[in-house]
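Exercise: predict the fold of this chain.
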Amino acid sequence: MPVQTMEEMIQAGLDRVVEMMTLAAWTSFRFKDRNTIKMVTVTGEDLTPVAEYCYSLGDMAPLAARDGRHLAQLIKEPSSMLIIGDKRKSDFNYNCGACGFKTCAELNKSEKMESLTADGPSCMFKNLNVSFAANAAAAMAYRLGLHCRVFSTLGFAARALQLIEDVDVSVSICVNAGNKNPFFDRHEYWTQEHWDETFDKEFPTFNRGFIGAIEE
């Protein structure tokens, strides 16, 4: 067996962990046993377009811009991202009304509303299924020793860039094999003045939402 360097083994381990995350997400609990989620993985330098897209949002979505700048730093170390998505329409026929329509049939006939974060209106149970899958994947990454965090910003960027296709809602689980956990230091890219200014702008009116998904 040829000698493997530490860097090679770390990268190989990272790849295997992401595979296990995908498996955990795939087997997580689903309503009515309907498993319709889609998943793709983006690794290394292929993450650069995601970082650039988020950063380009600037004043429209300041948190997305911050996360894009953060992702650009993560790429310097072994990193990967699992993207999970699903369609907005219901195939459950629960007719629960949580989406704002009386029946699933009415929801499925409704006009699609496109936004930065997701396309709606969407079935609540579809959104929950995506959340279950993301939590299962993140839990697997944690158990196997990787630094990880769930990002909605990087998830909707991946959808906008069509890295994951034919989904209306998406989320990402970013994992990193650096020497320290980088997901506790994201605030270092904001000064306290900018932090306070952004929060004053985004709260308490909720006019645009925390990540600026809807323009006034």
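Check your answer against the key: Residues 6-26 form the longest helix (21 residues).
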